[in-house]
Design a protein that fits this description.
4 strands, alpha+beta
């Protein structure tokens, strides 16, 4: 793995660890999608599948925008 790749991996992994827990069931969240261009990311609960939408604010801190259930459920 290249140094850049490793850094990116560590960065992603760090974000994954820092992602927090599900608002619904308190299970750890996994990274579902990251959009670096728009500074957005979507995390998904490993248990109930609830999506957590984050946006990076002006100081580079991820802030939770909304929590939503997947469309295909119910
Ligand atoms: Zn959950």
């Amino acid at each position: 793995m290249t140094e850049v790749g490793k850094t990116l991996h560590d960065s992603l992994f760090g974000q994954k660890l820092a992602a927090g827990k599900c608002k619904n069931c308190d299970y750890p969240l996994e990274v579902h999608e990251i959009d670096f261009k728009r500074n957005r990311k979507v995390l998904k609960c490993q248990r109930c599948g609830l999506f957590h939408y984050y946006k990076k604010d002006i100081v580079g801190k991820w802030r939770l925008q909304k929590v939503a259930k997947p469309d295909f459920q119910g």
